[in-house]
Each structure stands twice: as C-alpha cells, then as structure tokens.
Amino acid sequence: MSKLKKKQKKDIMGKPVSLENQRKWHSPMFLHLIAATLIAGVTLVAYSNTFNVSFRFDDIPNILNNPYVQIKVFSWDHLEQMFRGTYKETIRVFSYFTFALNYYFGESNLFGYHLVNLFIHITTGIFLYWFLLLTFNLLSLKGKYGSISYKVALFTSLIFVVHPIQTQSVTYIVQRMASMAGMFYLLAMVLYIKGRLSTGTARFYYFGGTALSYLLGIFSKENVAILPLFVALYEFYFFQNLDLSPRGKRVVFRLVGVLFILGAIGFILWGQRYYNDIVEGYKMREFTLEERVLTQFRVVLYYVTLLIYPHPSRLNLDYDFPISKTILSPPTTLLSILIVGGLIGYSIWTAKKRPVLSYCILWYFGNLMIESSVFPLEMVYEHRLYLPSVAPFILFSLLVMRGMEPIKREKDTVGIKPYLIQITACSLAIIILAIGTYSRNRLWNNDIEFWIDCVRKSPIKARPYLNVGYTYLNQGAYDKALEWTQKAIQIDPKYGIAYYNLSIIFQKMGDLNQSIIMGRKTLEIKPDLYLTYYSLGQTYLKTGQCEEAQEAFERYLKIYPYSPDAHNYLGIAYVCLKQFNKAIKEFEWEIRINPYHTFAHLNLGKIYWYKFQNRDKALYHLKFALRLLDPFFPDREEILNLIRLLEGLS
C-alpha cells in the first residue's frame, strides 16, 4: 500500500504542503490573479520612466493643435462638435474622444495621457492572456496544448507587454490609437469564443459584445476592419476543425456571406472617402502606389527582424526605408515576395497538421495587410506591429514551453528542480526585454537626444532635422531652432511645414516681417496648412495690419470654427478696425466655447463700458475676468480701479 500512496507535494524549501493549500494555489481564480498581477506589474516597471515624456511629432497636430479635442466645458453640444469635426478628417472618433477626456481633466498635463496609455496596454495584455487561455483549452486543441496553456498564455502576454517594439504604441501618446485598436480587437475575439461556448441568452450578449468591441475598435483605428476575417478563420480552424465536408462547406459559405455583407456596408459608408485618400495621398508622396506595395514585402520581413532583435539602437520613430523601384530594384524585393508568398502558401498547406502555426502566420501577415498595402502611408512605423506581433510571440512561447517538456520529465537536473529552470529561463527573457524597453523609454524622455538619434538613423531625411528644430523652439533656443530648421529645408526645399516653423521662430525672435514672409511661403507650398493663418493673424496684429489679421483669422475659423482663442483674436482684429459690434459677437462666441476665457471677458467688459457705456454688462465681465486673472497680471490694479469706478456710479 505504501508504494501506491501518492508522494506528498513539497514547497520550494522542501516542507510538506497541505492538501488545502495545494487546492488554493491551483485554484483557477488564484492563477488568473497571479497572471493579471504579473502582467500589470512588469508593464508598470518597464514603463515607469514614461510619465513625463513630452508631446511629440503627431501629438502636436492631433492633440495640442487640435481644437476639436480641446474641450474645456463637458456638454453634449461640445461633444457633438468634437465628433462632427473629427469625423470630417477621420473615423477614429473614439480615440479622439479619449484625448478630449484627457484634455478636459488635465489639459496638457502629461501624466494623465500616459496613465491612460498604460492602462490600455495592460488591459490588452490581460485580454491576450484570456484569449490564449480560451484558445488552447478548446476541445480541438486541449489534448495537445491544455497542459501548457496557462504557461503559454502568461509567457506570451508578458513578452507582449514588455517587448521594446511596443514602446511606440505606448510611450508615444497619439499611438494610443494602435493600442486601443488592439485592445478592442482581442476583446472581440474573447467575446466571440465565449459566445461560441455558451448557450441561450448568454450567447446573445457575448455576440452583442463582440459587435460592440468591433465598432469601438474601428472607431479607434481602421485596421480593426480585418477582424471579421480572423473571426471567420478562427471558427473554421478551431471550431470546425478545417472540416471540408458538405456541412463544413455550408459553414464556410455562411462565413463568407457575413464577410461580404460587412465589406459591402464598409464600402458604402467609407469607400469613397478612402478612395479619395488614396488618390490624393499619392500626389503628396515621393513614391507611387506600385512602389509602396513592392516595398512593403521587404518591410513586413524587416519587422520580423525587429521582433527577433529589438535592441534600442535599431528602433526609430522616423525611418528612411529604401524604396523598391521595381521588382528587381533592389533584388531583395523579389526575394521578399517569394518568402512572403512561400510562408502564406506553407500556412495553407500545413493548416490541417499544424493549425496553430498556420493561423499565426496568417494572423501576422493579415493584420499588417491594411497598413502594408495600397494606402499612401509612411513606409515603416513600429506601432503597426502592436497587434501582428501577437502571432510571433505565441509561436516563440510554444517553442520554449514545448522545448522544456523533456526537462520537466527529468526528476532532477544538477540538483535544480525542473520547474525552477522553466521559471528562471522565462523570467530572464522577460527581464532582458523589460530592460530594453526601459532603455528605449529613457531616450523618449530626452526630447533633443531623441530626435538627434532619429537624425543619426535617418541622416538624409528632412523631417528628423525639422523635429530637432521644433524641440529647440519649444525650449526657447531660437538660434538652434533656426539652424536645424534650415538644415531641413536644405534637404527638402519644398518642405511646407519647415517654412511654417520658420515663421514661428522669426516671430519669437522679433523679426515679424520675416515671419510674415515665411508664413506666406508656407501657404504657397502647402495651402491646406490652415494653422498658418492662425500664426499669421497673430503676427499681423503685432504689426498693426488689422485687415490682414481679420482675413487670416476668418479663413482659419472657416475650417476650425470651435478653435480655442481664435474668436478672441478675431475680436481684437475687429476692435483694431473699430468694428465693435462684430468684436462683441466674436468675444461672446469665444465665451460659448470656453465660459472661463479670461481675456474674452476682459475685452467684453472694456468694450461695453468704453464704447457703449453699458455699466451692468461691463461690471459683470470685468468681475468675472478679475476672478480668473493671475494675481501678478500687470494690469490687474488698473482693472480693479475700473471696477471700483463703475461700482461707485450706482
């Protein structure tokens, strides 16, 4: 009997573990709690130095200079303005809604933006863990992967959250769009699986949640549009077991029908918009549609090298990737086409034997398809790997865990318990990746060094030079800003934004005539850069050119009617032209946008008294402005004296 008696489990110190404690430590809820805690913990450590990373690059036009997200009064009217204004430019309205919330609660306070980005990244990691745990415990996969499902799900999720390639989607504030898209994509997959495993009303709610997650994902970033294809493939691979019998063919036919309907709806709603984007976009690019498509075969393989060796010295925000002019120029273009085609062909050929491998290959290339195809986007961006990277991480985790199975069967290896070897090896991999992420984020923290690093990696591209100049401009180092911006123009003499930056630099340096010249030059090269009218209007006011200022602000407000401060400046231009009734309308419009606009109240108070002798309205606005004014405002005493004078007239 003693031989048949099970050996009692012991803890790491060799002490016996009671049956009650064994049950507690192997409880599913306890294991899930450990997983969620580890995912959150390692993410916070790896990104602990990001909370003060400044707004950068596309953060400027999308957040700091975007009047639609700068909501100071939370109301349905302002939200409607935000949604309507944003939708004219892009369907990513839900992403911009989160920026608007950040702005409402903290304006340009960096901590809030980074906190939200980290929350999204951690949540995505947890959804990935959930998705993999459900997948590897499906009836079709449990026999092969069930015993290692927890380890694979956790290890994959930890790699995902700390891999350095993700820094661009997390640390770079505006690329919350990519991480939000990934979060809703994985949530939709989880809810679909739960729905398939449920019955009755629960299934209805799960499928409803899937549809809602899909919509939120699309309105975060358009690449989520591919999701129905991967839901259909998932169904065919893991629920139908690639069944091509008459029943299986009926299921495939239904799935294809659903995909067709969704595609038709998308085409009706947004087809014309994206067709126009493609046609107009290539007019502003230095490459053709054919060149971009050819180049992307090399790009998607280059991305794999970044996943395998993500050293911070290889990562770059602004790549200068060589363009494929023809299928043989460079020769690696044809080789890349053959490799990509071969991998996709292999995935189809091996689908029955190795469904997980097959699905992962299709996942990687399929989720890059939208951004690595015909759209006139930049050639390379690391944030595009946020969702596609899941597939290589899964395969790596499976390779590690299956590779360690022989070790697990050994009773002892040089005196070390087998599971300790597994934990040590996996922990070492996570630590190395986390160090790489922390190191990359440290560079993100230094504005000047970050952009100079981009210059080193893309030395013949104008934009990194421009961004060094822009950073010096924000720091008040105008001479250096001028030097670096002129370098950008030397590389690209038709770089409209560079001339716009020069106009701002000259304005700050006090050379207002040169600022106006550069502003006009900007509009010659890039007439749709409407922000130029705003800066020109300010300069015209400073030089006393009131009619020009009025025209500039009116043009700007035709495009951005709810832009903060612009109506106040237009009102000042009308005051300069002695058109006081028009000025009052503009100041009142400014107050409708932001009831706490100090100078709009102050300007109204002065006009109502000095021009219309309206004591009551003047007092109301002057008192309101006084409450909002900085205690050290130079003219505060003068305003206070005017209020006393008006009160004495009662």
Structure in words:
The protein folds into 4 domains: 21-55 and 108-242 and 285-439, no CATH class; 247-283; 448-590, Serine Threonine Protein Phosphatase 5, Tetratricopeptide repeat, CATH 1.25.40; 596-650, no CATH class. The chain is 70% helix and 0% strand. The protein is built from 31 helices and no strands. The longest helix is centred in the middle third of the chain and has 38 residues, at 246-283. It is elongated and about 90 Å long.
In brief, what are we looking at here?
By secondary structure, the chain is mainly α. The protein is 70% helix and 0% strand.
Give keywords.
650 residues; elongated
Termini separation comes to 106 Å
Radius of gyration equals 30 Å
Q: Mean of residue pLDDT?
A: 91
By secondary-structure content and strand pairing, the structural class works out as mainly alpha
Per DSSP, the total helix count is: 31
Strand content: under 5%
Structural topology:
Blueprint (H helix, E strand, L loop, with lengths): L18 H7 L2 H19 L12 H6 L11 H14 L3 H14 L3 H27 L5 H4 L3 H14 L4 H4 L5 H21 L3 H19 L8 H13 L6 H38 L5 H20 L23 H18 L5 H12 L23 H14 L1 H5 L8 H27 L2 H11 L4 H13 L3 H14 L4 H14 L2 H14 L5 H12 L3 H14 L6 H11 L3 H14 L4 H13 L4 H14 L7 H13 L2
